[in-house]
From TrEMBL:
Residues 120-216 form the P-type ATPase A domain. This is Heavy metal translocating P-type ATPase. It holds the Pfam family E1-E2_ATPase. It comes from the Bacteria. The lineage of its organism: Bacteria, Bacillati, Actinomycetota, Actinomycetes, Micrococcales. It comes from Brevibacterium gallinarum.
């Protein structure tokens, strides 16, 4: 059924398959006349259609393999090599079908991104009743209610006392954020806890998610069509072939000599070598967990000269965890138990991580009789014995414990201070761990010819620069929005530019880049839809691997193309001198095709240089 649907969708490719099979059957049963009529008719139809498209392309200033294909198909008919002509027809129409399939998939992926946008909103009326309305009907000033696990339909202002929002898909940051009355909320983020009320400050079209969808669409539509690798050789090869054929006709005075030369001048090495090599390279990339969506992306990856990397979830793992504990007046276990007891009443981003450590250690938490949280500072809990526990920023703890010395932090780390009464119970260090292969990947990208590497992140400048310095990135753009990421990317001079990221917030910049790679193993689906390639395994080292594989694949494709061209030109010269009859030339040309295919198949075996993992120091491994 799938084959029938494919043949219906791409009728010329289907016609070529049926015609080639039928022609071979007719020849096998001893009906060469019928076989020739059928093959010549099909070749003629394709020649006329291709010639029409070729004329339109030439008028538009585009020259490609269609010229060579038309000449080759006509030549095969003129010398009676109609089976070879049908093979050329199949390769030509099959390639066009694959290109149309790739374009159709890009459109479906954009539609999928749009379909994931919020569809409805819960509007509160003057009587307090809720009405579900299409998100497009939300007006500025409407009061909306967002239930737990619902996506915020539009941008707005929080009316409730507090709300915990998962903004990871939009900002790329893994930590839930606590908002207070009057704070600005962004569409596309997810309500993590209890229901809350908000006032719409923008319509659906003007909200952040709608803007992201629009940016993706504009970026996709602005991309110039990829020039096929073999097209660059089509015009000179065609000119050389026609020149040799015309010279052979001139010196011999025999028009048959012209056809004999063109039989061995068919563009099969060009038509076959690059696609076979590219398919081999894409298959090899898939084996290491990288899905390259089309051959154009592979070719661009091979030429990348600049790269921009997201931080959270790309250079780092995107999972905050307790890195170490610095005991004060209490032991490590007592410190964790006190912090977890207080944090269980908190909406703070680190509460889950601290509670998880307490559970893993099997600690018994002290009884809490009351707790309250101070926005942006920390949480305070009253224990059953009447003592107070505070967990939060250093300034919050200094209110009861007096002046304190800030802890020494490694790149990417942050601290939580814990007090018990007026004593500093200790400090808990948390961090979003840097990927082990991050620094090695950056170094390998430089070795592969990527001269400029930048970090584009929505995180604060201090943390961003610390991470960048650790992995060897000099250029850092912090506090970025989806729009400013696109602007920074456009300002990078050395092209093509690669972007690596994850999450919905990276969708526009992935689409705007010359080639985008999404870490799809944990990132939002919108990133995967906008990217040219998707890493299905959670390892940034695959970025370097796929560039190396792409470079070697293109090198193999070029070698195969040049080998095929060299052999074809050699055969053309022999044919021009009258030593190569048409039938023998057609057989030898198939040998040329075989050599080109075998050479291109080497791409299935391309390897890559492993990226070393960073060596952890004992201090980095230590967890109290």
């Amino acid at each position: 059924m799938a084959l029938i649907r494919a043949l219906r969708r791409y009728p010329l490719a289907g016609l070529a398959v049926v015609a080639l099979a039928t022609t071979l059957i007719l020849l096998a049963v001893g009906l060469p006349g019928a076989a020739q009529i059928l093959a010549t008719t099909v070749i003629g139809i394709v020649v006329l259609l291709t010639a029409w498209d070729m004329v339109k392309d030439i008028m538009a200033g585009k020259w490609g393999l269609d010229i060579l294909a038309v000449v080759a198909m006509v030549a095969t008919v003129l010398v009676g090599e109609y089976v070879a002509g049908l093979i050329i027809v199949l390769m030509l129409t099959g390639g066009e079908a694959l290109e149309e399939m790739a374009a159709g998939r890009a459109g479906r992926e954009l539609d999928a991104l749009i379909s994931r946008a919020p569809q409805f909103a819960n509007r509160e009326g003057a009587d307090g009743q809720l009405t579900q309305i299409p998100v497009d009907e939300v007006a500025i000033g409407d009061i909306l209610v967002v239930r737990p696990n619902e996506t915020l339909p539009v941008d707005g202002t929080l009316l409730g006392a507090s709300a915990t929002i998962d903004a990871s898909a939009m900002t790329g940051e893994p930590l839930p954020v606590t908002f207070r009355t009057g704070d600005t909320l962004a569409s596309g983020t997810v309500n993590e806890t209890r229901a809350f009320r908000m006032q719409a400050t923008a319509t659906s079209a003007d909200s952040q998610y709608g803007s992201i969808v629009r940016l993706v669409r504009e970026a996709v539509e602005s991309q110039a069509p990829m020039v096929r690798l073999a097209d660059r050789y089509a015009v000179p090869f065609t000119i050389v072939s026609l020149a040799i054929a015309a010279f052979a006709w001139f010196i011999s005075g025999n028009p048959t000599r012209f056809a004999e030369v063109l039989v061995v001048a068919t563009p099969c090495p060009l038509l076959i070598a690059a696609p076979v090599a590219f398919m081999g390279g894409m298959s090899r990339a898939a084996q290491i967990g990288v899905i390259i969506k089309n051959g154009g992306a592979l070719e661009t990856l091979a030429r990348v000269r600049s790269a921009a990397l997201d931080k959270t979830g790309t250079l780092t793992r995107g999972n905050p965890e307790v890195r170490r504990v610095i005991p004060g007046t209490h032991s490590a276990d007592e410190l964790i138990a006190l912090a977890a007891a207080a944090e269980q009443f908190s909406l703070h981003a680190f509460a889950q991580s601290i509670g998880q450590v307490a559970a893993e250690r099997g600690l018994t938490l002290p009884e809490v009789t009351g707790a309250d949280e101070t926005a942006t500072n920390g949480v305070r809990a009253l224990l059953a014995d009447g003592t107070e526990v505070r967990v939060g920023k250093i300034t919050y703890i200094e209110e009861v414990a007096g002046p304190l010395e800030p802890a020494q932090l490694a790149p990417g780390e942050t601290f939580v201070y814990v007090s018990h009464g007026s004593d500093l119970a200790g400090i808990i260090i948390l961090a979003d761990e840097l990927r082990a292969t991050a620094a090695g990947t950056v170094a390998r990208l430089h070795e592969l010819g990527v001269t400029d590497i930048a970090m584009l992140t929505g995180d604060n400048a201090a943390t961003a620069r610390a991470i960048a310095g650790t992995v060897g990135i000099d250029e850092v753009e912090a506090g970025c929005t989806p729009q400013t990421k696109v602007e920074h990317l456009a300002a990078m001079r050395n092209r093509p530019v690669l972007m690596v990221g994850d999450g919905v917030n990276d969708a526009p910049v992935l689409a705007a880049a010359d080639v985008g790679i999404a870490l799809g193993a944990r990132g939002a689906s919108a990133a995967s839809e906008s990217a040219s390639a998707v890493i299905t395994q959670d390892d940034i080292a695959n970025v370097a691997y796929v560039i190396e594989i792409s470079q070697r694949t293109v090198r193999i494709a070029l070698q195969s193309i040049w080998l095929g061209i060299a052999i074809s030109i050699g055969l053309m010269i022999v044919a021009a001198l009258g030593y190569l009859p048409a039938v023998v030339g057609a057989i030898l040309q198939e040998g040329v095709d075989l050599v080109a295919i075998l050479g291109a198949l080497r791409a299935l075996r391309v390897s890559h240089t492993p990226v070393p993992e960073a060596v952890e120091t004992p201090a980095a491994r230590q967890a109290a």
